[in-house]
Amino acid sequence: MRKRKILLVNPWIEDFAAYDFWLKPLGLLYVGSFLKKLGIEVDLIDLMNRYDPLLQSEVTVPRDKFYGTGKFPHTVIPKPKILSFMPRRYKRYGMPEELFRKILREHRGEVGSAFVTSTLTYWYPGYFDTIRVIKEELDVPVFFGGFFVRNQPRIALNSGAYIFTKTDLRFLPRFLNDVLDWNIPETNIDWFTELSPAYELYQRIGYVVLLTTIGCPYRCTYCIAHRNWEKMKFKSPEKVIEEIETFSQMHGVKDIVFFDDAILISKERHFKPILRLILEKGLNKRLRFHLPNGIHARLLDDETAHLLYEANFKTIKLGYETSGKLQITTGGKVRDEDLVRASEILHKAGFTHNEVSAYIMINLPGQSPEDVTNAIDVCASVDIDFSVNEFTPIVGTDIWLDLVNSGRLTGLEDPLLLNNTVLPYWWNNMTYEQIHEVKEYAKNKKQELGWK
User: Fold this and answer.
1) What cofactors are annotated for this protein (predicted)?
2) What is the pLDDT along the chain (452 residues), one digit of tens a residue?
């Protein structure tokens, strides 16, 4: 029987660009808490933690930009052959390989297996390289889970790891028992509502990312969130506050980030009580809070906005996506009038464009450059900032299915080709030049307004 200790690993990102916008492997940290609850010892190597003291002792880590975010250290590596046509350098972001190997060697004989997580599908070369290095340094089984594995299990098998495709961690004991010949008892623990992410596994971090809900009731055609979970789950406000207090004190951080897909759903019994507890406990006086994942503008009301302002929220991202007819055909989550109304509510509460911005997508199927520039103009007219983000067709979404059924995609594309940076170079939608022109329009618009 193998030693009952598992090494958790957050893998490298390999891409043309990557930035630490509050990236933390929450799923992996919940796996850590779940395993500890079952009596299994765990350790963590986060290759993407810019605050890792060992990393900072070995390489120069770029300074923070704002609120704990910043650039990753990186190494230029050869491009995958399928991306040889791309006129950009390909990079591995995160901890240098030799430092990773050194740390792994220190774990020899100490761990019985390793568990690697995953997120974006087109980052899989980084996941595979991470698994390869683990296998070369440690003679232990490697497990592989996360979104990429669930979304692309056939490709994930090529990693040589044992793949775990479930979102419900209650399936994990049987999975580990079958591979490792352990006898972990099955459990009915609700990993999300009862447990907290295992931030105690870190020596040092620059911010804390939390989830207060999982799931989303909306059915946006470009999004996979509603298919990731069978139903929405809500963590109790008291549990959320406990996590904020515990982890902010544990690591001495000032920035707390909520990464929920739909935090304003059932806000009267969920998010508003959380905001009131933040104020009651005075957490707003020592912490800054952030909502970077695109809240639903239509669900915002005056009381929520005032609570957000009083609670010291410094980042509020609104999901806007586009102007024009696509607002309806992509799911009807938000219209121009919803964004205008939300901006008025937030401004009345005291916010400015320094805290509030909207996500605008570009290169959606059927979208014109004018749809995007019009969306930029709407944001500018109501004094909220904006970011233009390139569309990626996620396998399994309604948009992806429509593209396959209409013949615009085969359904068999390598995920590397669906990278939003790569897509304009081969896909017959908006060209790279059109996208660049729109981004220049956005940049000039901000300069006209005197924004940074």
Assistant:
1) [4Fe-4S] cluster
2) 567 899 999 999 999 999 999 999 999 999 999 999 999 999 999 999 999 999 999 999 999 999 999 999 999 999 999 999 999 999 999 999 999 999 999 999 999 999 999 999 999 999 999 999 999 999 999 999 999 999 999 999 999 999 999 999 999 999 999 999 999 998 999 999 999 999 999 999 999 999 999 998 888 888 888 778 778 999 999 999 999 999 999 999 999 999 999 999 999 999 999 999 999 999 999 999 999 998 999 999 999 999 999 999 999 999 887 776 665 555 556 678 888 999 999 999 999 999 999 999 999 998 899 999 999 999 999 999 999 999 999 999 999 999 999 999 999 999 999 999 999 999 989 999 999 999 999 999 999 999 86
The bridge status of strand 74-77 relative to strand 90-93 is: antiparallel
Task: Let me know whether 432 and 284 are in one domain.
Answer: yes
| Residues 176, 214 within the same domain | no
Same domain, 27 and 153: yes
The answer as to whether 191 is a domain residue is no
CA distance 128 to 141: 14
Domain count, the chain: 2
| CATH number of the domain within which 307 lies | 3.20.20.70
Two tokens, residue 349: 């509460």
Residue 65 forms part of a structural domain: yes
Q: What is the pTM of this model?
A: 0.95
The full DSSP string for 34-98 is HHHHTT-EEEEEETT-TT-HHHHHHS-PPPB-STT-BPPPEEEEPPPGGGTT-SS-EEEESS-HH
Do 385 and 356 contact (CB within 8 A), yes or no? yes
Tokens of 235: 């963590």
User: The domain containing residue 63 runs over which residues?
Assistant: 5-180
CATH number of the domain residue 164 falls in: 3.40.50.280
- Judge contact between 230 and 264, C-beta under 8 A: no
